[in-house]
Amino acid sequence: MAEDSTAGLAPPLQDAATAPPPSPSSHGSLVALIRSRPGWTRQQLLAATGMSRTTLFDRLDALFAHEYVYQAGSAPAGPDGDGAGPGRRAELLRWDDRGRVVLVLDLGQTHARLCVTGVRGDILRMRDVAMDIDTDAGPYLDTVFDIAQELVDAGDDDEKLIGVALGIPGPVDPLTGVLGRSTTMPRWQSFPISATVRERWHAEVVIENDARAFALGESSVAGSGQTVLAVKYATGIGAGIVDGGHVLEGSAGAAGDIGHIRLTADGPRCTCGRRGCLAAWASGHALVRRLAKTGVQDLRDITERVSAGDATVCAELDTASAALGRVLATVVATINPDTVVLGGTLGRLPRVVSAVDAVIRDHVSDRTTQHLTVTSARLGADGGVVGLARKVVDLVYAPAAVDAAIAGGDASTGGATT
Ligand SMILES: [Zn+2]
To answer: How far is ligand 1, taken at its centre, from the CA of residue 261, in Å?
Structure first.
């Protein structure tokens, strides 16, 4: 099982996303069914799928061989006992997530959170690093990769890296992982991010916008049927929308890029080159610049001054929160979410949450907000990590991807931790 079986994995699993839907009785669909609850007996699977015994058992043999499913001891005896006969208990079958890990690189504008997680986004090992994304991609990724490799190497020998996820503060094409035109990462423009990651770890790679990854992570707390608008408010401002478990990417991978909505025709110059954008008025970057004369140097200075009740800093933050709230009110009126989640160093501040909450309710109809909750990030700073891990797992265990791996003779779902 420890063979480096993913090294020759081709084509990338993203291609499976555009393939026709797999048959409900395919290997991949069976894995999806087995993942949906903690344990199944063969009898229960026969009843749930309507497959013949021969077909089901053949499929299960392939899934055992490829280590998607394992036999996890005996099912408890009881009225649901599945006909194994007196004195025998049926074997329980489970999704084989044992030792499977994901490497998550959640890159922000000024710092990076690097983690090895389990398949549910539970953080096993983590490092936070101060890193400026406004630099050349090659040297930046070399540094991040070296630290990430240490985290990978610190695991047990039986850990299996199933994929690597990068969250980046720029627009990302959801299928190709290619970075669109970005004002925060101009020097990454034509850099082959996915290929560079794959060269290092020979594993599946997911690249997602950091705010959308954050939204996906936070939506797991909100509940699968909910509509969630999540906003990452730190050095920059970005948002993600998740509806029914699906994150909205948009036609150019730019869904949620609310920072460059222009509030005024003039106003301060924005990093995008225009004037009067929300980011130019209200982003952490803009606030630090505006408060520099008072000695503020970074976001941490802002949060400390706010806790200390510094009137100047609080007033600037309140003005910025009001601007953010007005933009969010338009989004709230458009999509009518159950929850607005505010994350990021500034977004998590209670002062910002209550100001944004008040402005939204003041600007849209009561009907729109009657069920609305506005809250700070419930996963703290981990929402992006949870969302990114989930994207990798969804990619690797998508029914079409499992079918393709089995048809292609890929020997296992794990393996490469070079
Ligand atoms: Zn702008």
So the answer is: 7
Under the phi-then-psi rule, with left for phi > 0, alpha for psi from -120 to 50, and beta for the rest, what region is 215? alpha
At 106 the three-state DSSP class reads strand
Please tell me the distance between residue 76's alpha carbon and the centre of ligand 1 in angstroms: 60
Residue 22 is predicted with a pLDDT of: 67
Query: 185 pLDDT band (50/70/90 cuts)?
Result: confident
Per-state percent for the chain, helix, strand, coil, to nearest 5: 40, 20, 40
C-beta separation of 322 from 355 below 8 A? yes
Q: Which of 136, 137, 117 is nearest to 125 (CA)?
A: 117
Instruction: Tell me which of 48-57, 176-185, 214-223, 320-329 is least confident.
Output: 176-185
On whether the CB atoms of residues 376 and 343 are closer than 8 A, the answer is yes
For residues 54 and 282, give the distance between their C-alpha atoms in angstroms, rounded to a whole number: 63
Tell me which DSSP letter residue 372 carries. -
In terms of Cα–Cα distance, which of 339, 123, 352 is closest to 215?
339
Q: How far apart are CA 361 and CA 354, in angstroms?
A: 11
Provide mean pLDDT across the span 247-269.
91
- Residues 131 and 107 sit within 8 Å (Cβ to Cβ): yes
Q: Distance, CA 275 to ligand 1 centroid (Å)?
A: 7
Q: What is the Rg, in whole angstroms, of the alpha carbon atoms belonging to the chain?
A: 24
* Contact between residue 96 and residue 69 where contact means Cβ atoms under 8 Å apart: yes
Instruction: Compute the distance from residue 149 Cα to the ligand 1 centre, in Å.
Output: 36
Q: How far is the CA of 133 from the centre of ligand 1 (A)?
A: 17
Gap from CA of 237 to ligand 1 centroid (Å): 10
Give the integer Cα–Cα distance in Å for 204 and 247: 20
pLDDT at 414: 43
If one compares 191 and 276, the residue with the highest pLDDT of the two is 276
User: Cα(49)–Cα(193) distance, rounded to whole angstroms?
Assistant: 41
**Which residue type does 51 have?**
M
Ligand 1 center–CA 276 separation, angstroms: 7
Beta carbons within 10 angstroms of residue 397's beta carbon: 22
Average per-residue pLDDT for the chain: 89
Mean pLDDT, range 289-307, rounded to an integer: 97
